[in-house]
Amino acid sequence: MYETSDIRKGLRVELDGDPFVVVDFQFVKPGKGTAFTRTKIRNMINGAVIDRTFKSNEKLKPADTEDREMQFLYRDGEFNFMDNSNYEQISLESSVVGDASNY
Prior knowledge:
Blueprint: E1 2-3, E2 12-15, E3 18-28, E4 36-43, E5 49-55, E6 59-62, E7 70-75, E8 79-83, E9 89-92, H1 94-97
Antiparallel strand pairs: 1-6, 2-3, 2-6, 3-4, 4-5, 7-8, 8-9
């Protein structure tokens, strides 16, 4: 389980059964009351970005995701990648690749 102090860009968490990735975050410690973290998170399934605020004592469940190193092949409207371990090729829409398309 993650705590709110673990929130960073790129952190993948599960909320309401869906995987989300943290796009942006801001830790806020007001003069009165408890501290909180204001976040923008992107749904990894449909790409929707939502704003969510977490109190400092909340726990976050890690998303059940997998990292695989892949090689970029070409772009034909979609981004095409190849898994170097088994040579399987996959295509991703530009909305899924997001800002990483510049790299």
